[in-house]
Design a protein that fits this description.
There is one protein chain. The chain is of the alpha+beta class. The chain folds into two domains: 227 residues, Rossmann fold, CATH 3.40.50.300; 111 residues, OB fold (Dihydrolipoamide Acetyltransferase, E2P) (Beta Barrel). The protein is 25% helix and 32% strand. It contains ten helices and 20 strands. α5 links the parallel β7 and β8. α2 crosses α3. The protein is elongated and about 80 Å long.
Length: 388
């Protein structure tokens, strides 16, 4: 059974009277890879900074191993941080960058012997797959290699928790994917807790043991990647984690929901008879069938080739769905669709109902995707963390 390591109890954070975190209650287990996921401004980095000691909550408690640490400064916490900007020392080589924290005198005045420093630095170089790089200049390294040096520098002090604030944001797509796997490997090799901040759903699904989805300072859902993806709690989570068609429905009875006047079998229950609900159908869970066999029929309005599959937009009575399929369906063609019961997920109505799931503006959004990576407000250097 996992052991609880960190707990935020009734934590609220406000800046100039504006609530950034709203009465947060959550715990983090020892030796897990946990990701705080959400859009810019949702409060995820603020939560990370509170755990690191760079911010003190306006109200509430931060507990580490059951001990309240609100007033414990960052350098006295067994927590280290890797930032999006690595803040490496350009005048020091790889070895000395990693060894820097070990050469600083400890609170008791004792210094670590050079022999132990060398042993620990070389151990970290092995962990981050940079063996033999100790004499290299950091300015000669690639972005991914510099990130590994920053991780090694944070880990060499043997923290119980490593905080990572969007550390892959500055890397190109291919390198980012490689580093996702590398970070998970490092976490497992070190056998410590990683708390990772990102707005990238793929990063969260790829690396995490647990995902915390946030919006506007409130935790929307906590669960495994599979739970978050397959059983979203509301329309915000369903839309933020993966592509989703989210339509209005009525829960006729347990195991049966009505969409567009047609009844569909599902696996959900526990709703009131005829209760209005939100229905989530993932694009990959829709099968295209001949018109006469279709549970619903629609008109193809857009098609995009994605290599492995096509993304097609289909108009069903004015509501546009995204369907991912290997079948080519030309624009203007009419198609039938079939959805198995396990491809339908029913959710309670929420304040997010009606805000997501219609792909009417899909073409415009698709053109903008490559420009939406991370914003300036997400970027913070180590110096800025300390200044706050």
């Amino acid at each position: 059974m996992s052991k609880e390591l960190i707990r935020l109890s009734n934590c609220t954070m406000a800046f100039d009277g504006e609530i950034v975190l709203d009465n947060i209650n959550i715990y983090f287990n020892d030796k897990e890879f946990l990701t705080l996921l959400g859009p810019s401004g949702c409060g995820k980095t603020t939560m990370l900074r509170i755990i690191g000691g760079f911010l003190k909550p306006t109200s509430g408690d931060v507990l580490f191993d059951g001990v309240r640490i609100n007033d414990v400064p960052p350098h006295k916490r067994t927590v280290n941080t890797v930032f999006q900007k690595y803040a490496l020392f350009p005048h020091l080589n790889v070895f000395e960058n990693i060894a820097f924290g070990l050469r600083i005198a400890r609170p008791d005045g004792k210094k670590i012997k050079e022999e132990e420093i060398r042993e620990r630095v070389l151990e970290m170089l092995e962990v981050v797959s940079l063996k033999g790089f100790e004499k290299r200049s950091v300015s000669s390294l690639s972005g991914g290699q510099q990130q590994r040096v920053a991780i090694a520098r944070a880990l060499v002090n043997r923290p119980k928790v490593l905080l990572l604030d969007e550390p892959l944001g500055a890397l190109d797509l291919r390198l980012r994917k490689d580093m996702q796997n590398e970070l998970k490997r490092i976490q497992q090799a070190m056998d410590i807790t990683f708390i990772y901040v990102t707005h990238d759903q793929e990063e969260a699904l790829t690396m995490s043991d647990t995902i915390v989805v946030m919006d506007k300072g409130v935790i929307q859902q906590v669960g495994t990647p599979e739970q978050i993806y397959n059983e979203p709690k509301n329309a915000f989570v369903a839309d933020f984690i993966g592509e989703s068609n989210i339509v209005d429905g009525n829960m006729i009875c347990d195991g049966e929901v009505e969409i567009f006047g047609k009844r569909f079998k599902c696996l959900d229950g526990g709703f009131e008879p005829n209760e209005p609900v939100d229905v989530v159908i993932r694009p990959e869970d829709v099968d295209i069938v001949p018109l006469k066999e279709g549970m619903l029929t629609g008109l193809v309005t857009n098609i995009t080739f994605k290599g492995v599959h096509y993304d097609i937009i289909v108009d069903f009575k004015g509501f546009k769905w995204l369907i991912q399929t290997t079948d080519y369906c030309p624009i203007g063609s009419k198609i039938g669709i079939k959805i198995d019961p396990d491809g339908i997920h029913v959710m309670k109505k929420s304040k997010y109902s009606g805000m997501f799931g219609d792909y009417s503006s899909y073409s415009a959004e698709y053109d903008e995707i490559s420009d939406v990576d991370y914003t300036a407000e997400d970027e913070q250097t180590e110096e800025e963390w300390h200044e706050d």
